Amino acid sequence: MTLAIHGGTPVRSASWPAWPPPLDPAQRELVTKVLESGLWGATQGGSVVADLTAAFASRSGVPYGVAVGNATLGLFAALRGLGVGRGDEVIVPAYTFVASATAVLLAGAVPVVADVDPVDLHLSPGAVRDAVTGRTAAIMPVHLAGSPADMDPLNDLAARHGLAVVEDAAQAHGATYRDRPVGGLGDAGVYSFQASKAMTAGEGGLIVCRDQAVHERVWSACNVGRAPGGRWYGHPSVGWNLRLTEIQAALLLPWLDRLDEEIERRNAFCAALERELAHVPEVTVVPQPEGTTRDSRHLLMLRLDAGVDREFALAAMAAEGVPLDAGYPPLGTMAALTAEGARAEPCPGAEEAARTVVWVRQAMLMDAPEAAGDVAEALAKVITHCSRERP
C-alpha cells in the first residue's frame, strides 16, 4: 500500500475536532455579562475571578487559590511564596516544557534537571535523590500529559530533606492520584489555561495551596506587593501585577461543569486506541505512573520501536491525515538554560524519550472512539513501510 507521502491515498481525509471547542451557552452568557458590566479587570469589583479561584481550589482539595496571567508566572509566584530565591536550587524533570525551568530562573534560583522514569516519563524519585544538594530548596514534579506524577515518594523525599514541593499541573486539570486531586498534593500546585490546555482562555493560570501564610505571600507576589486586606497604595513586599482578567475567568468558570465529561471522552478514545494498537507491536502506549486513579489525558504518549525512523514516521503520519507531535527535547540539552546557570544531571530516560516517543494531541482525543481506528491504521501502514525500508 503506497504511503500518502509518496502519492498514495491518505488513511483519513476528515478533519479532527477543533481546539478550543466552540463556546457553550453558559460561557457565552457569562462572557457577555462581564463585557456589558464594564468590570473587566480583576480589581474593578467583579466576582468571576474570585468564583473561579474558589472553585478550582475546592476541586484541588485545598482552601486557597490565586488566578494569574499564565502558568509560567504561576510557578514563579508559587516559588516566591514558598521562599525560594537567589542561590537556591529547584529540581525539575528533564522531559517537560521549558517553562518549568524558566520559572525557576525568574525566581532567581537554579534549575537542576533530573531524569525521568524510563517507563512512565515522570520525574524519577531516584534521580531526585541523587540531585539533592545543600542548596536544594524545592522539587517541581510535572503531571505530564494529564497523568499524575507518583507523588508519595517525592513528598517523602521532600519531607526528609526539608524541601518545598510545587506541582506543575499545567496539563492535568481533573487528574487524581490515589483518589486525591493533583494540585493539592504538595505545598502549591499550578494549572495552565494556555490555548492548548484542557481548559483555556487563550492564556491564564491558577495557583492553589493549603497554607494560609503561603497563600498570602503568593497573593502579594501577584498583586504588586500589597497585603491581603491592606492599603491600596501599601506595598510591604515586592510584587508584580500577574492577575487574570474577569473576561478570561468568564470563559473558564462554566468550563468546570463539562470538564469531567471531556475527560471521559478522551479516556474512551485512548482506551479504544490502545485496543487497536494491540495489532501494531512496534507501537506501545506509555503507561500511567504508579498511583494514577484518574488520567485527564491531555495527551496520549506513544513509544515507537527503536528501529522505527521517528522523523520519517511523523512526516508520513501527517500526510496520512493523522498528525502526531514529536514531543519535548531533553531539558538539559537546551543551551539557553545552561547559559543562565541551569545544571543538568545525566538523563538517559529523557534522551531515549526524545528519540522514540510521539504524542497524540488533545484535539484528536476529543473525537469519537471509533476514530481511534484511523490512528492505528495509519500507524500500521507507516510502520510497515519503515520495516520494509530498514536495512
Automatic annotation (TrEMBL):
Q: Where is this region: Disordered?
A: 1-20
Kinase in keyword set: no
**Keywords, sorted A to Z:** Pyridoxal phosphate
Q: Which cofactor does it need?
A: pyridoxal 5'-phosphate
Source domain of life is: Bacteria
Q: Which family does it belong to?
A: Belongs to the DegT/DnrJ/EryC1 family.
Q: In its UniProt entry, what is this protein called?
A: dTDP-4-amino-4,6-dideoxygalactose transaminase
| Biological source species | Nonomuraea angiospora
